[in-house]
Backbone:
C-alpha cells in the first residue's frame, strides 16, 4: 500500500483509480496519460529524429507524433507512418503529403485507395496524371 499522489489515501499498487478521489493510477508518482510514447534524444532543427506516440493525455486528447520519422495514430513529420499523417512522405490511412502510400490522401505522388494528387495510382481519385479505376483527370477538365 502506498499513498495516493493526489489525496494521500492509502491505495494498492495495482489500483487503476483511487477509491477516495478517483485519481487514475494513484500509486504512480507522475502520470500523464494512457498509452506509449518515446522520443529519441537526438534532434535536428528542433524536431526529434524519431518520435513514436500511441498515447492519450489525461484529458483524452491524442498525442501527435512529431519528428523526422513520426510513428503514431496521428503524425506530423518528414516521414510519417500513421493512421493520419501530414508531411512530405507518408504511409498512412489518411495522408496529406508530397508522396503517400495510403488509403486516402491529398498528395503530390500517391499509391492509394482514394486520392487527390498531382500523380496517382489509385482506386478512385482526382489526379493530374496517372492511373486508376475511377479517376477524374484534372487535365480532362481544363
Residues:
Amino acid at each position: 500500500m502506498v499513498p495516493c499522489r493526489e489525496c494521500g489515501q492509502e491505495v494498492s499498487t495495482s489500483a487503476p483509480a483511487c477509491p477516495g478521489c478517483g485519481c487514475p493510477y494513484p500509486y504512480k508518482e507522475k502520470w500523464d496519460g494512457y498509452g506509449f510514447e518515446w522520443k529519441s534524444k537526438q534532434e535536428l532543427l528542433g524536431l526529434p529524429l524519431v518520435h513514436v506516440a500511441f498515447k492519450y493525455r489525461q484529458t483524452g486528447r491524442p498525442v501527435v507524433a512529431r519528428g523526422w520519422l513520426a510513428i503514431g495514430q496521428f503524425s506530423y513529420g518528414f516521414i510519417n507512418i500513421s493512421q493520419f499523417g501530414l508531411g512530405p512522405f507518408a504511409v498512412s490511412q489518411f495522408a496529406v503529403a508530397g508522396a503517400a502510400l495510403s488509403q486516402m490522401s491529398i498528395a503530390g505522388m500517391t499509391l492509394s485507395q482514394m486520392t487527390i494528387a498531382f500523380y496517382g495510382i489509385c482506386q478512385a481519385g482526382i489526379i493530374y496524371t496517372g492511373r486508376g479505376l475511377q479517376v477524374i483527370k484534372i487535365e480532362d477538365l481544363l
